[in-house]
């Protein structure tokens, strides 16, 4: 299962696409500052050139990672509505009775308050569970439980 393509949420896809656009713009700016002179310059100029070349390499590596992840998710199709996985939209009822719809994501996003990362305590606990399951997890305030109400669009019980 580790080698299978993994879907991502729409929100995570948009965040990756925005990061990719930002990285490509930054790469173009850095690349424009490289080379262009035949004179070797002093040691400070050479060090600066090396630093920009290293930055360009890091940008290229991240661009490749994001591009590969976007291609992988495209071939994975939509997130499952049978069991919770990365990319799933899940409506849950917490132990205190509050109901919330969250998306399971592989990365945290500053602007998305309803995302739960797959490696967070709640995210790890939800993975693989189905509607109707009650799941225990370690919350910041101590052990807690959550009940999976539905997968997919928000539950009518909210």
From TrEMBL:
Pfam families: GreA_GreB, GreA_GreB_N. SUPFAM superfamilies: FKBP-like. PANTHER family: TRANSCRIPTION ELONGATION FACTOR GREA. The keyword NADP does not apply. Residues 80-150 form the Transcription elongation factor GreA/GreB C-terminal domain. Residues 134-158 are annotated as: Disordered. Residues 7-72 form the Transcription elongation factor GreA/GreB N-terminal domain. This is Transcription elongation factor GreA. GO terms for biological process: DNA-templated transcription elongation; regulation of DNA-templated transcription elongation. Coiled coil: none annotated. It comes from Streptomyces spiralis. Keywords: Elongation factor, Protein biosynthesis, Transcription, Transcription regulation. InterPro entries: GreA/GreB_C_sf, Tscrpt_elong_fac_GreA/B_C, Tscrpt_elong_fac_GreA/B_fam, Tscrpt_elong_fac_GreA/B_N. One of its GO terms (molecular function) is RNA polymerase binding.
